[in-house]
Specification:
single chain; about 230 residues; mainly alpha; Arc Repressor Mutant, subunit A; 3 domains; 3 strands; about 60% helix; globular
Amino acid sequence: MDFKGAILRTCAKRNDKHAEDVRLRVEGSISDLHAAEARYHVDCRARFMTTKHVKAASASTCSESNAYDLALSQVTDAMKGQNLNIWNSVEINDLYSEFGGSQLQRKGLMSRIEEYFGNELVGLHSPGLANMIVFKEVAPNLIKLVNTKDDDDLDFALKVVAKHIIDEDRDINYDPTIYNTRINTEMLSSYVSDTVSCLLSKLSPNIENTNPGYMIGNMITAAIGKHPTPLQIA
């Protein structure tokens, strides 16, 4: 148990993909820590657990995060400087890419933009068109805004979300001849619709990118595709 605790603490310090794979192996229902007398290769343990390698992994993760934050910050600054414009999601995503951003897809980027500006923005949505946003302070000069509590908005939103989930789940590749008894985070998430992941994160941040969240997503994929996922089999 002491060795297991040491491994998990190292995973938390490294905070990279390798650490996530190791953590899932150790904490999973089929643990990889039950080798004969718990003996592991010394060089593998050293590369993963020594202070030098832990610091290197942690620094790499922080560097990626800082690069992403910088690109997002540059996008928000550009939008503030051109607050008279009506922005659409394609333009914002292109601008993010020009600034070197690569960590967020368009949906995630728009979500972070709306989270950053909060009530300063008004979102405009129409089927078949890229989502648009405009600053509320200049919106009356560009468009006429009318408040409504019509349930039609909710019904339309549910239909759009359901269609996205169904289309994304049907595009997931499934091979019924291959069974995996050991799974990692990449495999867990690969059988979850991006829209489902986004929806779960909005329902509760506590299940975002967690095993319970992945299980919910895998169950939805299985129900739509009418076949079990590797997570359910494992």
